[in-house]
Every structure is written in C-alpha cells, then in structure tokens.
Design a protein that fits this description.
By secondary structure, this protein is mainly alpha-helical. It has one domain. Helix content is 44%, strand content 8%. The chain has six helices and three strands. A three-stranded mixed beta sheet has the order 1-3-2. The chain starts with 29 loop residues before the first helix and ends in a 10-residue tail after the last helix.
Length: 174
C-alpha cells in the first residue's frame, strides 16, 4: 500500500485530522496525543504517519501489521481533530485486541442511535463501507465521540494484557 510510507515523526507532530462535525470531542493537547500514541506502541501497535494517502483517507488500522496509520496530507493541524481520528483507529485496535466486537449484541442498536445523534455525517459515512464492516465502524465512531479519559480506559480494558507483558522488541515509529 503506497500510503503506508513510514516517517520518522512522532504521531503528535504536525498531524491533523479533519472531522468538522459537531462532535463532542474535546480539544486535546499534542502531549496527550503523543502519550496515547506511546501507549498504543507499548501494546505492540505501530503508529505510522503518511503524507501520500488517497484524498479520502484520514486514517486506517491494518490488523495483519498491527499498525495504525494517520494521513497527515488530508488533515488540518488541530489536536482535537487528530484526537478524533486517533480514537477512531484505536477502537479498531481494541477490536483487534479483543478478537471481535467491543459491544455485546444488544448494545449495537443503542450505539447506532448515539452515533446518529452525535454526528449525522459520521453515520452517513457508514454507507461508504461494505455491510460486513458496519458494526466495527459504528463502534469506532462511538469511541471517537467519547472523552479522552474514556477512550484511554477502554483501551486499557481491551488491550491490558498487551500492556502488562513487556515484549522483547517494542515497535517504534519509523
């Protein structure tokens, strides 16, 4: 994938994400973003920054590589927006850690209602995904609307075993 070119920049530097909706996402600091990216790396997930993504791609998670991608070329330089994409992609990392959905079956309808209410545009974007991806994307959209403390707590809950066990070689940004 051409957009997976790696840069030696920390996630928190010069990145941006363009969610211009009325989400309840609180403005986060670059320091908090960098700290959460470090937590992701401690859990074994590489954080990558690309400047050559297709114009419609803001971020991605590649489960086979266990790598989270931020598309710097498509994002404004705003920590609140960066936090939104980081939280969204971190939800996919959590799904990967858990080996499936974060929500139990009966919670999905409520999640859809919450995502619809918090940002109709985010819900409309679900149409861009294959039906088989809707559940994962609803969960990610729900997570990205949560306050940072809650996102970090969810990450600790679903990926705690990866954080507790030091690995021989912790992935780092390249």
């Amino acid at each position: 994938m051409a957009c997976w070119r790696r840069f030696g920049l920390p996630l928190a530097l010069g990145l941006s994400f363009g969610l211009s909706s009325g989400l309840g996402v609180r403005a986060e600091t670059w320091e908090r973003i960098g700290s959460f990216a470090a937590t992701l790396r401690r859990a074994g997930t590489s954080t990558l920054v690309a400047r050559d993504c297709p114009s419609t791609l803001l971020g991605a998670f590649h489960s086979q590589r266990n790598a989270l991608l931020i598309c710097a070329n498509n994002l404004p330089n705003d920590p609140a927006e960066i936090w939104g994409v980081l939280a969204h992609e971190a939800a996919h990392v959590m799904q990967h850690c858990k080996g499936g959905p974060l929500l139990v079956e009966g919670q999905l309808d409520r999640a859809i209602t919450l995502v619809k209410a918090s940002s109709p545009r985010l819900f409309k974007e679900l149409k861009l995904y294959h039906q088989s991806q809707h559940r994962d994307e609803v969960e990610a959209r729900l997570v990205q609307t949560l306050p940072a403390d809650q996102v970090e707590a969810l990450f600790a809950r679903f990926c705690a075993d990866r954080l507790a066990q030091p690995t021989a070689e912790t992935p780092r940004d390249e």
